[in-house]
Amino acid sequence: ATPLAVAAGIRDAARRGIVIVSDAVFEQAAGVDTVVLDKTGTLTDGEMQLLDTVAADARPESVRRRAAALERASPHPIAEAIVAGVDDDGAATDGGRTATATTTATVTDRGVSGRVDGDDVVVGHRSLFGGDEWTIPERLHEAGSNARDGGRVPVYVGWGGTVRGVLVVGDEVRSGWEDVVDELAADGRRVVLLTGDSPEAARRFEEHSSVDEVFAAVPPEAKAETVRRLAATERVAMVGDGSNDAPALAAADIGVSVASGTDLAADAADAVLLEDRLSAIPELFDVTRGTNRRLT
Ligand code: ADP
Ligand code: MG
Fold first, then answer.
1. Three-class SS state of 158
2. Which residue among the candidates 38, 197, 241, 270 is catalytic per the annotation?
3. Among the atoms of ligand 1, which is closest to the Cα of residue 195?
4. Where in the cell is it found (predicted)?
5. Which residue range(s) make up the domain with 72?
6. Using one digit for the tens of pLDDT, what is the confidence trace for 254-267?
7. CATH number at residue 270
8. How far apart are CA 116 and CA 103, in angstroms?
């Protein structure tokens, strides 16, 4: 790529809110066989809201307060939704009288654990509550599967060996996502959805004809491995969130991050989409195509 053509491409991209960080984008984009899309924060707007609280063996208020106390330590969109939802409610009902003390908080890929009000509390994905250590009351099992069936994320909250509550969190699917995947498919690219979320939550995407393959319930640490496996036989562009999906972005031939709330300097991506606009994905391919045309 001549410096002039690259400069023109970078400028065209910038006009569309696309920051091209690495030359790899110009070198590899045209040959991309497969576009892997993350779900939460990419196909959905990532603006999670706390929608419902179901409790068993505890007061809903203690479940909510304890969960929020721990989630304060996590930057995950789910955590932010829980903290904001509980704070709003607390302000409305008791003026924030009953602050809950956290003495420690350990953030992992699937949730947060720590000591709150003298109990060891765990908040997060159902898989954190497996094995003999945990009892999950039937009512909470049901709340969890109902949430998943509705495309929502159930967040489990437990202490003392018992799951005490399920917080239901959800966001909205970005409008126009169908057109975007149609456009990628019309360009002859395979469209793959990769999500840590449940198969039920992925179903509405799977049903769309331009989506070729769906990998659901992929734990965060396995996302990069899935991308690596695809990239062994295909040229892969991965679009995801710059912080949670950083290893998967790095494993792809081209990593594209959706900028929302990410520190650009710490971003491992080859290109960054600055605006909440999914159509920037096909535009990225258009821009590089234009650049390569100028080269020949
Ligand atoms: P996605 O692939 O949909 O973007 P992530 O890989 O970011 O999802 O997270 C996978 C799952 O881990 C989430 O759906 C959620 O169940 C759980 N999880 C991760 N972080 C948190 C947190 N801070 N609080 C509660 N649950 C969490
Ligand atoms: Mg994500």
1. strand
2. 38
3. 2
4. Endomembrane system
5. 49-170
6. 999 987 655 665 56
7. 3.40.50.1000
8. 6
